[in-house]
């Protein structure tokens, strides 16, 4: 089977974590006999990416697009114009059985147009709760995004959602008039494996995520301040970069916890895996999350993970069994959960074992590839 993967997310030399949730399953699909051609796409107003060596290399293509939210509704048409001749040549020399587009705009829209032009079926993956792009894009442009996304979903052979939470958003926005499947992201259990040696005596709480408001880093800092007196040796490590950095650093100073919190910036996949091995537990109280690969990676590394109720990760974390769930924007509840886990080493160890077992049973890259392959075969018939 020959699949064209059309994606705006793919690893680069600058950021090997970007699009790893797209690139990493492809190696496992290749083992199952799927040949993937990858078109990784980017608008011309962004800096030219430097391709990274991956198991399945990508052809990086840039396309015309207007910057800002107003350009998103038309981006798919411009992307289709950019790829159609290349796709026609590829299809003539090595027939494409299926297009897998990641995100409805712009890639899903371009796949829909290519499907009509070349009679190639397509599926589209939805990686977040903003399934119609009308949260990030407001006004008339947002309404336009929503209408196009609805057409993309309804015309596809399958809408692949990363959680039931995301699937509910898609079905609500389309009136249930599209065929959906849930395919949870997978983890490499060897890269994200438990540490051979026990972590250091000083407890470390790790968070990994872009420094943007929805990730709840301010909740983390307030919890850190609440725990400072009872756990004077406790340290917090935050991996990620983004526009919230200066505000969060200011909040640290205001709460008098600057010496207890380390902002480590953007790091490589290997560095993130090493940080997860050395930490005591993982916490990210994100309030708007379709699933969250970092929770799965922490669980795979044998660490208790704390997420938020009502988000996609609540489909994986069973509260008190293989992790913990707290209320969004609830620093007091987060502090209580952290304190309990730090005080009860036996419970922390049991949760860590259950977390790792959960990943090995259902959420590895092999599981993800197996489910995708079944969908590919059904969609290509």
Describe this protein's structure.
The chain has 381 residues and is of the alpha/beta class. It folds into 2 domains: 202 residues, Rossmann fold; 159 residues, 3-Layer(aba) Sandwich (Rossmann fold), CATH 3.40.50. 43% of the residues lie in helices and 17% in strands. It has 12 helices and 13 strands. Strand 11, helix 9 and strand 12 form a beta-alpha-beta unit. It is globular, with a radius of gyration of 21 Å. The N and C termini lie close together (11 Å).
For the record, the CATH architecture of the largest domain stands as 3-Layer(aba) Sandwich
Fourth-level CATH superfamily of the largest domain: Glycogen Phosphorylase B
Top-tier CATH class of the largest domain: Alpha Beta
The major sheet is characterized as: 7 strands, parallel
Q: Please report the distance between the alpha carbons of the first and last residues.
A: 11 Å
CATH fold description of the largest domain? Rossmann fold
Give the tally of structural domains: 2
Shape category: globular
Secondary-structure element string: EHEEHEHEHEHEEHEHEHEHEEHHH
* Total strand segments: 13
Strand content: 15-25%
Brief overview, please?
With 381 residues, the chain is of the alpha/beta class. The chain is 43% helix and 17% strand. It is built from twelve helices and 13 strands.
SSE blueprint:
Blueprint: E1 2-7, H1 20-31, E2 35-43, E3 58-63, H2 72-93, E4 98-102, H3 104-118, E5 122-126, H4 139-155, E6 158-161, H5 164-174, E7 180-182, E8 204-208, H6 217-227, E9 235-239, H7 245-255, E10 261-265, H8 269-278, E11 281-283, H9 293-300, E12 305-308, E13 324-326, H10 331-343, H11 345-362, H12 365-380
Parallel strand pairs: 1-2, 1-4, 2-3, 4-5, 5-6, 6-7, 8-9, 8-11, 9-10, 11-12, 12-13
Helix pairs in contact: 1-12, 2-3, 3-4, 6-7, 6-10
């Amino acid at each position: 089977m020959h699949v064209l993967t059309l994606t705006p997310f793919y690893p680069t030399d600058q950021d090997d974590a970007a699009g790893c949730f797209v690139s990493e399953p492809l190696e496992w699909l290749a083992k199952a006999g799927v040949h993937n051609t990858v078109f990784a796409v980017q608008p011309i107003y962004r800096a030219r990416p430097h391709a990274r060596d991956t198991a399945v290399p990508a052809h990086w293509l840039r396309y015309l697009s207007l910057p800002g939210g107003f350009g998103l509704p038309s981006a798919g048409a411009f992307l289709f114009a950019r790829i159609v001749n290349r796709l026609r040549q590829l299809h003539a020399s090595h027939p494409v059985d299926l297009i897998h587009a990641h995100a409805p705009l712009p890639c899903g829209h371009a796949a829909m147009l290519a499907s009509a032009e070349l009679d190639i079926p397509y599926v589209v993956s939805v990686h977040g709760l903003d399934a119609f792009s009308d949260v990030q894009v407001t006004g008339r442009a947002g309404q336009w995004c929503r209408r196009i996304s609805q057409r993309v979903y309804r015309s596809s052979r399958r809408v692949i959602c990363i959680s039931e939470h995301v699937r509910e958003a898609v079905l609500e926005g389309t009136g249930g008039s599209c065929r959906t499947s849930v395919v949870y992201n997978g983890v490499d259990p060897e890269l994200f494996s438990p540490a051979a040696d026990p972590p250091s005596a000083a407890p470390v709480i790790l968070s990994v995520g872009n420094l943007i408001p929805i990730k709840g880093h301010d909740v983390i800092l307030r919890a850190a301040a609440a725990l400072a007196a009872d756990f004077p040796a406790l340290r917090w490590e935050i991996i990620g970069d983004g526009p919230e950095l200066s505000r969060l650093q200011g909040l640290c100073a205001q709460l008098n916890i600057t010496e207890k919190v380390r902002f480590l910036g953007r790091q490589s996949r290997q560095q993130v895996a090493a940080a997860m091995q050395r930490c005591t537990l993982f916490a990210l109280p994100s309030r708007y999350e379709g699933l969250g690969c970092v929770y799965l990676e922490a669980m795979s590394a044998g660490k208790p993970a704390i997420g938020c109720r009502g988000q996609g990760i609540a489909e994986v974390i069973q509260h008190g069994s293989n992790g913990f769930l707290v209320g969004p924007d609830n620093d007091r509840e987060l502090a209580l959960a952290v304190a309990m886990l730090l005080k009860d080493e036996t419970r922390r160890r049991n949760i860590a074992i259950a977390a790792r077992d959960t990943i090995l049973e259902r959420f590895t890259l092999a599981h993800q590839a197996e489910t995708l392959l079944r969908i590919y075969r059904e969609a290509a018939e």
